[in-house]
Design goal:
With about 70 residues, the chain is mostly beta strands. The protein has one domain. It has no helices and four strands. It has a four-stranded antiparallel beta sheet with strand order 2-1-3-4, with no helix packed on it. The radius of gyration is 13 Å and the shape is elongated.
């Protein structure tokens, strides 16, 4: 499963990250696949945000890709 998390936002009550999309895919060894997500503009905080895509929450040794807007 590929998961998209968006973190950030202003205010003390802003969540660390929110799950904003996921896709269940099956890959064979050495296989890769492009995955796309569509995010509604209202779902993106107006302040600096961090976007993480991977196979789980972006913590520990779970592989993921991070970027910022």
């Amino acid at each position: 499963m590929v998961q998209l998390y968006i973190g950030g936002g202003s205010g003390g009550d802003a969540p660390i990250r929110n799950l904003r999309g996921f896709q269940r895919i099956h890959l064979k060894a050495s296989e890769s696949r492009q995955v796309s997500f569509t995010v509604i503009a209202d779902d993106i905080p107006k302040s600096k945000v961090e976007i993480s895509v991977g196979s789980g929450q972006p913590k520990g040794n779970i592989p993921h890709v991070k970027g910022t807007l």
